TrEMBL record:
Family: Belongs to the prefoldin subunit beta family.
Any Pfam family matching the protein: Prefoldin_2
Gene Ontology annotations for the cellular component aspect, listed alphabetically: cytoplasm; prefoldin complex
Coiled coil: 70-111
Job description of the protein: Binds specifically to cytosolic chaperonin (c-CPN) and transfers target proteins to it. Binds to nascent polypeptide chain and promotes folding in an environment in which there are many competing pathways for nonnative proteins.
GO MF term (any one): protein folding chaperone
Oxidoreductase found in the keyword field: no
Subunit comment: Heterohexamer of two PFD-alpha type and four PFD-beta type subunits.
UniProt protein name: Prefoldin subunit 1
Keywords, in A-Z order: Chaperone, Coiled coil
């Protein structure tokens, strides 16, 4: 009778281990994406503050691939604020995803703890 219990526990532990490894990789990926987006956001903010100090008649160019396109100051400011907003939204989504992943791992751990406690009680 001890063998089936051990097999069930072993199966549950292996599933938990696989889930933990997968979740840790997803969390690391989310952290990397958050770092990249915060750098992008910071770069856009710094560029925006520098552009606002320039006179209105300054010629501004936007880099597109290997060339530069003449843009108005207003268009560049709008693009930079859009970059900041989209980066902020993506960061919030990634943080929510991280919380969900961490919660799912915690629930799996709790389920295995309950299984162990119920086996010991028998």
């Amino acid at each position: 009778m001890a063998a089936p219990i051990d097999l069930e526990l072993k199966k549950a532990f292996t599933e938990l281990q696989v889930k933990m490894i997968d979740t840790q990789q997803k969390v690391k990926l989310a952290d990397l994406q958050i770092d990249q987006l915060t750098r992008l956001q910071k770069h856009a903010k710094l560029t925006h503050t520098e552009i606002t100090t320039l006179p209105d008649n300054t010629r501004l160019y936007e880099g597109v691939g290997r060339m530069f396109i003449l843009q108005s100051k207003e268009e560049i400011n709008n693009q930079l604020t859009d970059k900041q907003k989209t980066a902020d939204e993506k960061i919030k989504e990634l943080e929510q995803k991280k919380v969900y992943l961490e919660r799912s791992v915690k629930e799996a751990e709790d389920n295995i703890r309950e299984m162990l406690l119920s086996r010991r009680a028998q």
